[in-house]
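Hi P.,

Sorry for the delay on this. The queue was packed all week, but I finally got your sequence through. Input first:
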Amino acid sequence: MNQDLAKNRILEKSLDLERFAKELSGVLPKTAEDYKKSSILIKSTVERRLQLISDTEIDILAILYKNLKLKVVGEDMSLITAFSDVLNGKTIEKIRRLRDLRNKLTHEYKSEQFDEEVFKIAGENTNQSSLISNIKHTLDNG
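Then the structure:
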């Protein structure tokens, strides 16, 4: 994939990230307690937006990965780890926590603290500008 095509695809995916984050922000209750009391519709919407954000982050990393011609990886977590030296540690950890939550959502692994975990991670993902900036910087300097 040539550099311009990779940049364009990442920019498109970045717009998706911003849209999903805005939608998440629009439905996320103000407190964890309010979230726990929310309807299934609100919880499902929050959870789905988190899944979409996580999947889009992985899509962006995969495009960036191919563009940077890094060594071969097998699955999502190893793809995320491959960027440990490229993206800052806080960004990597945020992506990793969201991906872990996404997998719990997908496979319906829920604990007593699940709503609190979803609310906390949702709050961390209502704004994607830092991640997008970090990725654009990496793409421009890669």
